[in-house]
Every structure is written in structure tokens, then in C-alpha cells.
Amino acid sequence: MSSETVRAAFRSRIATLLEPQFAWQESVNVARESKTLPHRWYTMDFVVASIDRVALGRPSLMRESGSVRVMIYTEQQIGDAPATAAAFTIFNSLCNWAAGHLRIMESAPPNDMDGGDIRGAWFAQSVDTRYQFDSFVP
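Now predict its structure.
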């Protein structure tokens, strides 16, 4: 999983783009009944690819490389337009975003998950973004 600093930065950025139209739902190790979910919601999956030492000595410079997938859901009855618009908002915003030592390497265009039908209840879009984060370890 990505570092807490990276997760907090992405959660803050995405919240400013999507809320209050979409509600955040934690999905990591949390079981949810679909009938308790809001009509429009989103979640994120953080996948760290590597953490490498860039500079020797004290403090050490470490570089975390990974990806984050933002998943946006709307009920089928609402249609796909709100989720698609939100996904493009995220894509456009993250393409050139940087926050301190966090840099976006690549943001992929929105992807229609499961052909627009996840078990007949949700329309879903995802946006995948690769990042690098440099940090010092004392």
C-alpha cells in the first residue's frame, strides 16, 4: 500500500473535485452491502510498485513509485453521464498535478469498468494514475 502521505494527498485532491456530488466510501478491507451505498460514490485503490533508495547517507532519499485507481460509481437508474463527467474531471486535473514531493507521471483516460453493468446495480468508471513520491528517512 502507498505511504500515508501519498494516500492523504490523493484523498484530499479527489475530495475537492468530487464532493459533495459524490460521497467517499472506504473500500479497503471494508465489507459493504450495496443497498447501503449512496446513489453516487467513489473509492480509491492504492498500489505501491516499489520504494527505492535514491541517495545513500543520512538522511536517505527514498523514492516511492506506484499507482492509484479512482473508481466512481452511479446507480444504473441515474445513468452514466455523472460518473463519466466526474472521471474526466479527475483525469484532466491529475494530468499536470504535483504536490510537494509528489509528482504525477501519467494519468490514463477514464475506463468503463465491466461494460457499465456491475451486477446490474452500478455504472462505474475508473481513472488510473502513476506517481512518484520522494521522501527523506532520517
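Residues 107 and 129 are 4 Å apart (CA to CA).
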